Amino acid sequence: MRYLGPAALTAASLVLLLATDQGAIGMPATGTPAASRPAPQSQAQSQPQSQPQSQSRPPSQSLAPELAAQPLTAQGLPARPLPAQPLPAVAHQAAPLTAAAMAAGTAPGSAAEPPPVRLRRTVLSDPLRARRSPLPVEVFTGAGFDACTAPPLETMRAWWGTSPYGAVGVYTSGRQRACAQPRLTAAWVREVRAMGWRVVPTHVGRQAPCMTAAGKMQRIDPAKAVQQGKEEAAEAVRAVKNLGLRTGTPVYLDIEAYPRGDSACSQAVMDFTVGWTQALHKAGFRSGFYSSTDAGIADLAAAARAGSAPLPDAVWYARWDGRATTTDGAGRLGDDLWADHARIHQHRGNVQETYGGAALTVDRDQLDGPVAR
């Protein structure tokens, strides 16, 4: 996934609402423990509901930014990243790293930041409230990566145990995926999970009506946003079922960055997300939401404050600040929003790395949230 700040745009990745508390945004985890990855910073687990967000974190989350930018192997030795270089096809329409946006004065709270949008409260019924028991969940805490296309199995084998990563983001569905997925089958998913990898399913469909970047031309219709969100959720559910993934699996809706300040555009994105979440919950799956902190994540936080529901169970926020942490919310997520093992932070993008003799261009993520079951 790629991060796109508003400066570049103007210039051109719970619910269990605790099943009883609609006011709490975050995901209480229930379920059976997952197998542990050999590397200490990549331990998958299912968390009890009472466990706080401030639990002890793996070493990969406590590295200083300058060290977090240099991955370590499972044995604690420096990895051998190759120089970063762009590829002809990338997953996202990207701008320079977050540092460039911050230098332009568009960091959260800066004077150049667009004024807050005003969102209307959108509330639909939540099918999870009718369930007799909460959805099962598998939580992973540790380092992960996402790539435009599902990597070869040989690469996944080479990276397991030699890289710092224990989870992989995969584009499982969506009419606007940037790359083909010739290897993405139920057999591929089964084999990588047998190796120990955790999978993060992602859907790339319609985008914000005010999105300015080229390449993803299908946009949300504000008059039909809720219904379109439901339709795309149905497509996403079919895809993950075909891949052999089970009830409780999250699917993260990928909303690429868009310029903020247009209330009608932001409202359409949030209405689409509410429809998406309701349909996923009805089918027995969790809802996730990926976007830039300066676009969709900021609007999602505003929608939560406005009381819209149901909202996604987990958020995947893109801010390329080199900080391998999920605790600060990049200035957009307070401690009361998606704080209970319901966050993924994409902290660096378009990095070419080599482990076990196999090279990939990836985006780096830090996870403390739900993954596929």
Please, could you describe this protein's structure?
The protein has 373 residues and is α/β, with parallel strands linked by helices. Helix content is 23%, strand content 19%. It has nine helices and nine strands. It has helices at residues 6-11, 59-62, 65-68, 98-103, 153-159, 186-195, 225-242, 263-283, 296-306; strands at 42-45, 138-146, 167-173, 198-203, 250-254, 286-292, 314-318, 343-355, 358-371. The chain has an eight-stranded mixed beta barrel with strand order 2-3-4-5-6-7-8-9, surrounded by five helices. Strand 6 (286-292), helix 9 (296-306) and strand 7 form a beta-alpha-beta unit. Helix 7 (225-242) crosses helix 8 (263-283). The chain is globular, with a radius of gyration of 19 Å. The two termini are 22 Å apart. The model is unreliable at 2-25 and 27-106 (pLDDT under 50).
